[in-house]
Amino acid sequence: MATISSAVGEDQPPQPSLTFTRPVFAKLSPHPYLLHTLSPSDPSVPSSRTNGRKPQEARKIQINTSSLSQAHGSALVRTGDTTVICGVRGEILPVSSIPQFRADQHKNYNYDGEDKRIEQGKKELLEYDLLVPNIELATGCAPQFLPGVPPTTLAQTVSTRVYSLLHSAGIVDVEGLRVWYTPAKRDEDKMEEDDREEEELEPEVKGYWVLYIDLLFVSFDGNPFDAAWTAVMAALRDTKLPNARWDPDREMVVCEKGEGKRLDVRGLPVACSAAVFLEKEHAEDREGDRHWILLDPDRQEEGLCKEVITAVVDCSGGQGETKIRSLEKQGGTVLGRELIRGFVGVAEERWKEVAAEMPQ
Amino acid sequence: MTATSEPEAALGVLPRADGSAKYSHAGYTVTAAVNGPIEAQRKDENPYEAHVDVIVRPAAGVGGTRERHLESILQSSLSHIILIKNFPRSLIQIVLQVEDSPENDYVNTKLVQGNLNFAIMPALFQTAVLALLSAGVPMRATATATAVAVVFHDGVKRTVVDPSPREIEIARSVHVLAFTSHDELLLAESEGDFIVKEWDEVYETAKKICCHSAPADDGMQMALDEEAAAGPDMRHFLRSTMESKVAADLYWK
Amino acid sequence: MPREAEPSLNEKQFVIQALQENLRLDGRELEQYRPLELTLGDQYGVADATLGKTRVLAKASAELTVPYTDRPLDGIFTIATELSPMTSPAFELNRPTETEVLLSRLLEKTVRRSNALDTESLCLIAGQKCWSVRVDVHVLSHDGNLIDAACFAVVSALRHFKKPDTSMEGGVLTVYTAAEREPVPLSWLHSPFCVTWSFYGEQGEIAVLDATWLEEQVRVGSCTISLNRHGEICQISKLGGTPVEAVALLQCSAVSLTKVKEFSTYLDEKLAEDAKRRNKGGLLAELSAENDR
Fold this sequence. Notes:
Chain B: Its main location: nucleus. By secondary structure, chain A is an alpha+beta fold. Chain A has helices at residues 2-5, 22-28, 30-38, 113-127, 153-168, 187-192, 197-200, 224-238, 299-304, 337-357; strands at 61-65, 73-79, 82-94, 131-137, 178-181, 204-219, 240-241, 244-247, 252-255, 261-262, 270-278, 291-295, 307-314, 323-330.
């Protein structure tokens, strides 16, 4: 191993043809290479990954918002060589175009308390499909994405996970997406029938904003979900929807020009992923095998690991315990109960890093 | 309404597949066919191990992104328990057809749904394992899965095993956990709003259901008592299903 | 993907010679079906039809949508057939084979074009809202005569199916959930069934009903007749193959009618049985659950 990793000096005699330089060796047998850097033969050398990071070290995250002028909200997120851009665009959906719309559904929720209201809101978002995320892993962002093929399984998986989390974590309050209208009364009516005024002035929902959340991976170097989710959160927090109102004469929703209202975003869940790297690459028997948990894996590391874990935590509530919004672990049996518990602590640290970068 | 509370299963239901199983539990009915090891397509060929291909087909409509995600979850978990190193350059194909799933009477369901259906995962997982056993595909371990929901009702927290669609709708958090027969956690998927302590409780509940050790002859009575309290005992169920199938196949002996 | 193995020459010869002696490998008469079995699901619109080792699952579903602009007064009705690798690893996803195309064409002609389902009744507001009824056909196991089994499953699923109840009040459409109002059945006009004949011999003089997969592979021609219990023929398709005497075909259609009458009676029985099973306390239990909330 040592002969292989030592650089080929100029003054040395020509090396035998079976000696490779570091990058060549890393490419030819990535698994032994990563194993070697993680468990160096010299104990004074700290264990590190091929990319120079420590096992539990994530890449720095950079967030830039409002970079797309045509979208209602946008964000560019970069962690290492994974770059994703997210644009949020609101479109008006009049209730007459929702076949399954029920006018009486949201009327009585105000009496039932906060929990019922949130539950009803989630149901409306889901039933009328008001949040539409779409993920594109662009051709050329990494060698495995070819042009002219249907969306890869990876793109579909990430898209489902973003969609599920958007709904289950209740990020967006449906109230901010409703377009209300209170029927105005003609003057004569007002004079004569003051008593009936209250019942007639019941406001009604005339339309909804549908948020199209488009994600485009500009470059891809592993861990797509964390980057995508951070981009979605940053873009939603950046979203300003124009003021919309119902025009009863033209029977349509009209938007006012100029700056609108900032979208109300609840909480700040942050995703944190890791992969488990095993000592033996092709062994069936895993007894007594060593393993490393690699936080924020890059593309090469993802190719070498099968077991992955993602925790989505939200510490924005201040005091009290960290809220977990989602926990996904699959592909292996190394991560048991204790390791998952410990991983939630790692995710909390990551939350602090990301929250500090998140523009207010 | 007519949903079965006890799991039911039949093996070898499809005459032409290498292995097949039909499983119904908590209102879900899934049929699985396993073919393999068969010739792999060039793009799926792996020189070191077999490629495991999982196809999930919904009862109504065409499979969308949600099914692709379910497939990828099942694929990674099943490849872990199948001894894929034994069959390099080949393909093990698992087709899961959802036949029946319980409906939520309080919502009119849409055909194409994007969000993940947690409650169906244990049924898919269990059917796949049964079908693999029926096909005689060598496995490192068998596995069992269950779904648990944490529901707050009138301020009281309850843990519901095998939640109905209505319970999932009002649940604070929903969890799916799968354990191998060596009591290792194979799969954990959770969503909603929960804290580590709640997850621990869910873990205990799920483990009790999935990893109930097979009752020994002398401790039969005790085991039966516990079973009544802890809900279905998946591992024992898996075992007894296989035992009865083997007994039926070897009746001539 | 691996290809299906074809029967060997010996197998072919054996089957054909047996048929010429009026014998079938499974001991059936030439004009005898394998036992047909139907299982209706817990949910409305799920039908599982078994014909020997052939098994087809059909699932009907409905959702609200906007009608096609060129047919504003009609609802939408589609039958989706996709053979998955479950049937046989030779079938690939998203790559229709000839069997699949033929199956979907025949179901289309038999059920959809014969106006078995009144599509006008699916329209709720002209040009704006209508029901889209969809039947998904899942072939679980294929051992010949897919068409007859699939057609029976589709018709059973549609007759068993119930869609959510709706009401119109002052131009406002309300769709009720199953908890609010009991769903309503589709407006069904007649039940067509397919009967497929397979022909053997040099002039196709031997006509066989309900051929198995092996028998299908050695036949010289086939003809599918779709008709309802009143003897009204919806379609006949004989796609190529050895020419068959017209008189023989007439004989075939007469036998088909008796078969269709059997199917029809069997389906009616099954549906009545299912309705009886559902009524037993099912409704009462639902009502009490409603009062809790």
